[in-house]
Amino acid sequence: MLDAADDLLVERGFSGVTMEGIAVRAGVAKQTIYRWWKSKVDILLDTLVDDAEQPLAWRPGSSPAAPEEELTDQLGRVAAFLQEPAGQVLLSLIGHAQLDPETAAKLRDGFLREQRERDLAGLGALLARHTGRPVDERLTGRLLDAALGPIFHQALVLGRPADPATLATTARLVLDAAGREPVPGAGRSSDAE
Amino acid sequence: MLDAADDLLVERGFSGVTMEGIAVRAGVAKQTIYRWWKSKVDILLDTLVDDAEQPLAWRPGSSPAAPEEELTDQLGRVAAFLQEPAGQVLLSLIGHAQLDPETAAKLRDGFLREQRERDLAGLGALLARHTGRPVDERLTGRLLDAALGPIFHQALVLGRPADPATLATTARLVLDAAGREPVPGAGRSSDAE
Amino acid sequence: MLDAADDLLVERGFSGVTMEGIAVRAGVAKQTIYRWWKSKVDILLDTLVDDAEQPLAWRPGSSPAAPEEELTDQLGRVAAFLQEPAGQVLLSLIGHAQLDPETAAKLRDGFLREQRERDLAGLGALLARHTGRPVDERLTGRLLDAALGPIFHQALVLGRPADPATLATTARLVLDAAGREPVPGAGRSSDAE
Amino acid sequence: MLDAADDLLVERGFSGVTMEGIAVRAGVAKQTIYRWWKSKVDILLDTLVDDAEQPLAWRPGSSPAAPEEELTDQLGRVAAFLQEPAGQVLLSLIGHAQLDPETAAKLRDGFLREQRERDLAGLGALLARHTGRPVDERLTGRLLDAALGPIFHQALVLGRPADPATLATTARLVLDAAGREPVPGAGRSSDAE
DNA sequence: TTATAACCGAGACGGTACGTCGCGTCTTAGT
DNA sequence: ACTAAGACGCGACGTACCGTCTCGGTTATAA
Fold first, then answer.
1. Residue B67 domain boundaries
2. Cβ contact (<8 Å) for A146 and B173?
3. Four-point Cα dihedral A87, A90, A95, A98, nearest 10
4. What CATH number is attached to the domain comprising D19?
5. Nucleotides of strand F under 7 angstroms from a protein beta carbon
């Protein structure tokens, strides 16, 4: 059933994914689908969990590598992921989340929250290695936005893959900012990260 | 008709905007709507053009003002805009663009392209004032992504308004990067901006 | 305009005759049509008056001719008329009269009433010549129904042209009945003719 | 659903019978109607089969009764039927058959063909009892037209119930013609009955 | 070994919205 | 003054999916 949904999304786009269509393609009764999922969104969320976690994982710091190259690589993997079918599922769900609060809640409380935790851990470790000291989590959060923001901006708003130059610029920006930041978290109170 | 569509979007969300509903609320025949717009997306695109240009305009450089404050203010206006009804229209359309290529094409070839041109001009001018020399347009493009990316990332992916700390961090990042960049556009060839 | 309506009826059938279509075909604005006719039915009624009277006229008794042959000829003309375009207009209007009381009223108070008067006069004269004495008008009415009934029955109900044998049988029946009828109109009171 | 259609026809006439209206009145979804019938004409055809067969049946010859009275009674039942709601359905469908060939085909290949067979059998038996010998079927057909023609002519063309005098005249005409017809079917070749 | 229940495919059902057609009325330019 | 052109409010069309709801017909134990 997950496969049927996935295939339909690739072949016919999000609006081509219908409970009716999935049922026919999977050779299954609609009722059977409703027994397991409340809506097509829930189905796609399940495919996302299956297909997205691994490609978005932070590689375990091939230790002596330059942090900048490491970060650029990771951003490159994110950008590449968004071009694949599983990435299209994510973009579709983020898209649909703009139109439907329930989708938004499920997506953000589920996959996106977990992925952000993984990203915070990955980026935090990388920055610590880079600066030689632990990094404030709120700062890491802001730098994560600075790192992922351009990629998602290009994908969601401009509708094109992030180009390598942007990725490199972004990585350098983030690392510079992390190095320059004086005392971790000192005195900053308006941070809502 | 545009108002009716706008109101429905605010009251009932994107899926609550139906041709049928607009017609009833505007006291108009469906056919009349179809005579002027091909779909509800086109209607919303028109409301966008009406309502989004002015709030997103770059203020004409209150001359001696610090560029960092100026940029932070502009980013704040963008973030604030996304919280307003007109901003919800934009976010909805960007969301729908993920689900429907035709929407994507219209949105990007229309409003988004024009807005990006205004943004490039605005940011370019600001950077030139900041650095004291003209700035390469491709660099400006990348820095624009760096500036807007976090805001849209927070809005679209995390579903929350961008916090002031993020805006300030982002503005500083962008200006630092512009100042550091040695020779405008020198030697870079993989730039697809 | 009458021609346009006529043509459309022949080419596309009654439901293919639309005010919109007549206007386009006649190169005329709808409003102009409404200035002269209230509906497409009225237009067709006008074409009927133009095209039906002459073909349905009773030939002026080629005197010594056998009445039976004369009557058969007249019935043949009626049957043939119903096969022609003008006859199709009549059948269509009679058909539509079953569905719409207003059409029924206009058709019966107009063309059909006048045609029935011509038929009564024609048949009455023929019967008088045949029997050698004047014929009661109510009897003539009943015999007119007996004469036309089978033709319209075949056309409207069975959907086929009346065959010559039926016409001959019918003509003989009618003349026999007229000859046998003892005293014109004597004693009959329930006649509503 | 059939009842809803029937009621609407009586209350609002043929053009007041709409799929939309039937659905609302029957408390049913439009799609459900379309699942079972292609058009409102098919629905009315079904009501016809339910409601018309019995009232139009030939009574089984209360044996010694005078054939003339028997035939007059039968014609009276036909005339009375056309005044009832079920008869209005028949007249409407015959009317619509003049406007739409598909309706014509369905009506004539279905109900009308079957009813004609029943009529031929009924009239044939009556004539055989009257004349004392079997009657040629083609002759029976012509006499059936002679019998029913005036009734339908009055209903469809003149728009009024057939009066008793006409029915009596018609019955006598038909029986006289049957008695006089010398040798069943002898020599007649142009008969297309 | 049989019964009995859980589960399934199939698809009918009441709905909502779709995008289209023709209606009859109206407004607007152009001659 | 009258026209063609066509926009307008309207009501119905026939279609696509929605999510809910019976239906029989398997399996797959439990008696």
1. 41-180
2. yes
3. -150
4. 1.10.10.60
5. 3-22
